[in-house]
Design goal:
The two termini are about 25 Å apart. This protein is of the alpha/beta class and about 300 residues long. Helix 2 packs across helix 4.
Length: about 300
Amino acid sequence: MTGLDGTHAAASVVALHCSLGSGRQWTKLAGALGGTPFLAPDISGYGVAACGRDWPRTLDGEIARLEPWLAKATGPIHLVGHSYGGAIAFRLASASPYAQRIRSLTLIEPVLPTLLRDGTADVRLYDRFARIAQVVAQDIFDGAVLEAVEAFTAFWAGSGPREQFSPSGRLRMIEQADKLPYDFNAALDLDGVAAAARALRVPTLLVSGGLSPYVTQRIVAKLAAMIDGAEMRHLPAAGHMLPVTHAERVNPEILRHIWRAEELAKLELAACAGPTEAAAAAAQPAGSVRPHLVFRKPSFWE
């Protein structure tokens, strides 16, 4: 990542994947970022973090498990999260020791169902999500893992076609399905989402797909109305796995969002600096450590 002055920025990009996925989900994003410091850790229960059964039941617990990876990100963080990883990213940016270091936030259909309990019009969506969570969990506890995976993938297919998985991919999902009840529990356990969203002061990009379950489409729409200055991108022909299936559309939006956050950081640093400090601020790499800044939507975002 290059700052406005042409110097290499110290900021890192951290991307968190969905349930039943792994950090490999972000291979194309890593390539698009070039030499930018990039971390795509495996969330507990998946990929290289699949070993064991002592999994966290809350998003805060997930963040604690990611601590060794997060410690590798020096300076500001551009945080990207998809689905369950989006829920973890939201919690990271709104209520964690890392919140003050988040320079930009990209949430792709984050699983924040408790946001839908606040209004009567959305309660039915919350209830539907809670029901599928109960079905999947019961199937897992009954040893019906195949049925649990089928119910899970059918729900997330939304109104789009069922995704076709390779035999090895389906086997991996079956092997890691035991983690799903914990993910559902963590998402359903989070309270105060609306208040946390309204308090966010970080450049935020929200992305959704028109073929996704309406639950996550609605969550994205509500967050867009609550987070100050948030930008929203909706891809009508994309489903819930859009960062993978539509990477050629999604990744450029993520990159643009990160670049704009870097530019905004430099502009605000220069504006806050005194007359003798302005030149030094202008010469500072855009990714250098700095106090967290309140986001204001500049005119070039119109």
